[in-house]
Amino acid sequence: MKVKKMAQMIALIGVVAPAASPVFAQDVAPALQRVEITGSSIKRVAKEGALPVQVINYETIEKSGITSTEQLIRSLSSNGTGADNMTSGNNVFGADADRVSGGASYASLRGLGPNSTLVLLNGRRIAAFGASAKAVDLNAIPLGAIQRVEILKDGASAIYGTDAIGGVINFILRTDYRGLEASLNDNFTEHGGGATRRLSLLGGVGSLQNDGFNLMGSVTYDNNDKLSSSQRSFANGFQPSRGLSPDTTGTPYANQLTGAGTALGTGFTRPGDSTTYLQANPLSFQGKCDTIPGMSQYQTALWKDVTAASRSTYSCAYDYGADYIISFPVERLNAVSRGTLQINADHKLFVEALYGHSKATAEFTPVQISTSLANGSAYPVGGAYYQDLSAYIPTFDKTKPIIYKWRANPWGNRTQENVTDNARLLVGAEGVVRNWDYRVGLSHGESTTKTALLDGYGYTSKIYSALGTGIINPWLLAGQSQTPEAMALVESTKFRGAFQHGKTKLTQLDGNVSGEIWQLPAGAVSMAVGFDLRREGYSFAQDVDATQILLSPGNAALSDASRDIKAVYTELLVPITKQLEVQLAVRRDHYSVFGDTTNPKISFRYEPANWLLFRGSANKGFLAPSFTQLYSAQLSQELPNGIIDPIGCPQHPGDPLYCAIPRLPYFTGGNPTLKPETSKQGSLGVVIEPVKGYSASLDYWAINSLNRILNRTPQVVLANAALLQNNIIRNADGTIAYVTAGWINAAGAKTRGADLSLRGEGKIDGYSWNANLDGTYTQSFKFAEIEGQQYKEYVGNFYTRDLYLRWKHNASLSVGRGDWSAMLIQNYSSGYNDQLPNGGKGTPPAGFNPHVKSYTKYDLSATYSGIKNTTITIGIQNLLDTDPSFTAHNVDEVVGAGWDPRVADPRGRSLNILLKYKFL
Length: 920
Description:
Blueprint: H1 2-13, E1 34-35, E2 44-45, E3 53-57, H2 58-63, H3 69-74, E4 117-121, E5 124-125, E6 146-152, H4 157-160, E7 167-173, E8 179-189, E9 196-205, E10 213-224, E11 227-228, E12 255-257, E13 268-270, E14 273-277, E15 279-280, H5 282-286, E16 295-297, H6 308-312, E17 316-318, E18 325-327, E19 330-344, E20 347-364, E21 368-370, E22 403-407, E23 414-433, E24 436-455, H7 460-468, H8 484-493, E25 497-520, E26 523-542, E27 558-575, E28 580-591, E29 595-609, E30 612-623, H9 627-631, E31 635-638, H10 648-651, H11 656-659, E32 665-668, E33 677-691, E34 694-706, E35 709-712, H12 714-719, E36 728-730, E37 736-740, E38 742-745, E39 749-764, E40 767-783, E41 792-793, E42 807-817, E43 820-829, E44 832-833, E45 851-852, E46 855-867, E47 870-877, E48 910-918
Parallel strand pairs: 4-7, 32-37
Antiparallel strand pairs: 1-2, 3-6, 4-5, 6-7, 8-9, 8-48, 9-10, 10-19, 11-18, 12-15, 12-22, 13-14, 16-17, 19-20, 20-23, 21-22, 23-24, 24-25, 25-26, 26-27, 27-28, 28-29, 29-30, 30-33, 31-32, 33-34, 34-39, 35-38, 36-37, 39-40, 40-41, 40-42, 42-43, 43-46, 44-45, 46-47, 47-48
């Protein structure tokens, strides 16, 4: 209880990422250096401004035990609780997922998606992830060379253009570094798996002030070990007493299926039971499904729908959620160098080179196969492993072949190797001309991702033919194995090698000037004018015909596509009175693919007293459609038999042309007519510092977006036929010719909330202390999929894409004296309403709790710097070894059975050791 009370007290005063304390006007000396702050192009003395900017320094990142950029971004309370990390990214999150399983991680401020969060490096753009051109892969950020991170929690399209609806994350590299230091960071979990390690080397020579030059370089190597669900007891999809059980009958010990011309026929009955059943497994009849690892008796009561009882009463189920890879092995090598030449006191030139290489080995469970007579994969009569169920089913016809559903373990886990190379070269200059600051840069960046299939995949026709021989046994009991002949046959069907590749390019020429243009009684009016010229390109191709490979992760090809962007912007900083300052900005972008967009912004900073500050903003934003959304190839496919025309069937009841449409064709893919998403947003906040060293800020924000770009399936189009009539193409007689699905401009989203920040620092008996808290309260997140539908509230409710939690915070308390310092960190996420089993169609067990509990994690670290040139930090992450909160959702919709990786840390308690040594 004492630990719990202490943690609660810390939560009231404490942030995992302490930001610089607010500096008010009376504390700023005229001699302080003017800097450019994220969200503005005008250099000024750093102080608490009109826009909410959170600053995280590298020392805090190290002491927190954070070893990757993904971990850092996930710790932000303003970042969404979504599927944009490497764990959740192991699955497909519905039709709206503009991503591939390429081992990428993304930021998603306000939960608006990676496309709506702008990631910058030293204030400039870098190329998007090569596999999807969706957004910047966080793995490309050289964290070892970072000096600080600035998070602008406000829209910024008026300054930066597209992508900045949710906010901006700006990674600032170290500059003018001198010396040589090496650091080693190892992190080991108590329960095994998921270990991480990092080796970093940073060096620099020359002083800009004394030598007129500086050359800095950094190399960082990261290695993350695999963590499997089998290594964590909470990853358990079979907990029927809590309403959770698997819904898949694709089991390692196959379930037999019914069908015309097969041993089970079109259905079977049991003696004394008139119900017609559709699947059978001898282990189910015997109550022995659980004798095979991962299998269990299918829980028809929990998955009760119109077919569950007849389909699965005598079936076994398989908990493949407990067979998932929670986090897969990743290797990263990041290098960055920067050379700066001080021409004179007013001008300097610089060259910056960035290179990143990452290899992520993704693993998925073995393929699930349903055999059939049509493709020749049925188990033949007379085969060595022919399974006769006559003892359980009197109508079983052993003169006919068997069709079955099987988790094909002999093929092994489907394994993909995703290798990404990122590079950027930037040449620039900055300085002062006649009291005007200028900055100009020319850069070119590329990101290339190559995906190879290493194991678990095979040619569809070869696999079906191999199964039809009867040599491979789909009914292995525990401890049994396939014959060498069977394994050789399995091996002969496999595909290994290069599979697909994508590449993005970004060439940018940008610049701006800023300075004072005239004097007002309250002070000088400052102005910035800038331009931004970019060429963006993307290509994506398959190295093999993905349609020939069973359950391949193939994506539609996209030939070389490019677009030119030309933008100009201006910004004014106007002191209305000594206490009131107004910032005005506007930017106009011209895209070669869809035309012009103009986005203004106005913000204010009002300081009526030296301890009180009011601030606010109002602005417009936009998000340009991605290359994939615009240009990915149109794929022609067919829906299965029996599709109902929701408009035509009521008008022609019983007519199969309207009420049971055979093989309805549809098209899906890119849509070159897409319009940009647009937004209107604003914020209003207050900052107080009643006593020096103690401050608090509260900022209320609201964002309304329209024309959201979503990927609609043909089923969604048909279900909303009245609202999407243009997507349903009809023949002259009114019947449906085909359906156009894929990317469309849908309705919009409305979100509101508030950010709370608390800061405190002081000294007690020779000890210095610092306490921080950053929290985000989401009041509402409403979303309508299609124009004309009502907006639906998602805050506090389960959703398959993002969880919009009511409250998240990160808090910290640090204490130091002499060579010692310590930090205690708390991460908190509020609970939410759980998904009912089977979407509410089932019958939850008595006492089922439809609410997921809140999740709290503590980290503790201590740092000692009393050894010459050496710093040692030892920390324990997840101090109380807290398991993720239980959730009854099934793995088919969100990775993880019985837990949710979007909220919780699956690694458990871990030991973090950081050693840093300065040679010079």
